[in-house]
Amino acid sequence: MKSPGGFYSNSLEMLLDTMCNMLGAIVFIALMVALVAQDSPAPQPAYYEAQAAQLSNALAAITASNSAVEADLQKTLLRLQDPHLRPVTNLMRLPNLSKTGKQSWPVIVQYGGLYPLNVPSTNGRGGVLRNNRTLTRQGKFVEARPGLGQDPEQGVAEMAQAFKDSGQTNFYFAFWVYDDSFNAFIRAREAAARLGFQYGWEPLPQNERLQLGPQGEHVLPQN
Fold first, then answer.
1. Which tens digit of pLDDT belongs to each residue from 171-197?
2. Is 141:207 a contact under the CB 8 Å cutoff?
3. Strand-pair partners of 115
4. 152: Cα separation from own chain's centroid
5. 24 to each of 17, 30, 35, 64, 176, how far by Cα in Å?
6. Residues of the chain with pLDDT under 50
7. Burial of 145 (0-12, 13-18, 19+ CB in 10 A)
8. What confidence tens digit (pLDDT) does each residue in 1-39 have?
9. Could you tell me if 200 and 222 are in contact, meaning their C-beta atoms sit under 8 angstroms apart?
10. Closest Cα to residue 186, out of 43, 100, 44, 85?
11. pTM here?
12. Which of 122, 172, 175, 206 has CB 3.0 to 4.6 Å from 198, enough for a Cys bridge?
């Protein structure tokens, strides 16, 4: 015969059994997780070396980019600080051009040197010859030959002397300036100013060839 408290005693025993089973299951899962984690291989040194190499490459790329930006800023500041120069624009020209009765003497400024499109004739008659020694011509296009340009100061002085020797002093320098030779242009225009010559200039992108029109390219003096 069952005692009056037998029902509650059996329920308590079932609850204790269930709790023990759950505790055992938790302990079993924890042990399995520990065993799996212990068996997993640790990262090899090569992995850390690859990560370090990637970070180094990223840092080098950022440093190179910063250097390029700094160089561009220095060039821009130099242009802005020079009162004789006007900003390089694609569609606008500042109204500081002056009319003149003189003839333009076009000169390409590239590869750090001067490449005049023409040379005064030495026959004493005041003629002008094409410069085919340091330039190549393909139809209307004119290109400078790398390494054959004149030193900026010396080149301007030699051209000025050639004008005098041929009896042609009615010229001003018209510079076509490529991106890689802006400093050479500054030296050339200062030499021209010291010798009493007017000058004008136009910028040209590095990958663009000078194209001559039917009347030839004309740059007005700016000083």
1. 889 999 998 899 999 999 999 999 989
2. no
3. 108
4. 24
5. 10, 10, 17, 61, 88
6. 1-5, 7-8, 86-95, 215-216
7. middle
8. 444 445 445 556 666 677 777 777 787 787 777 776 666
9. yes
10. 85
11. 0.54
12. 172
**DSSP-derived secondary structure for the chain:** ---TTHHHHHHHHHHHHHHHHHHHHHHHHHHHHHHHHHHSPPPPHHHHHHHHHHHHHHHHHHHHHHHHHHHHHHHHHHHHH-TT-----SS---S-----SSEEEEEEEETTEEEESEEE-SSSS--EEE--SSEEEETTEEEEPTT-PBPHHHHHHHHHHHHHHTT---EEEEEEEEGGGHHHHHHHHHHHHHTT--EEEEEE-TT--EE--TT--------
User: CA–CA separation, 108 vs 93, rounded Å?
Assistant: 19
User: What would the two tokens of residue 25 be?
Assistant: 């299951």
**Secondary structure string (H, E, C) spanning 12-67:** HHHHHHHHHHHHHHHHHHHHHHHHHHHHCCCCCHHHHHHHHHHHHHHHHHHHHHHH
**Res 186: pLDDT:** 94
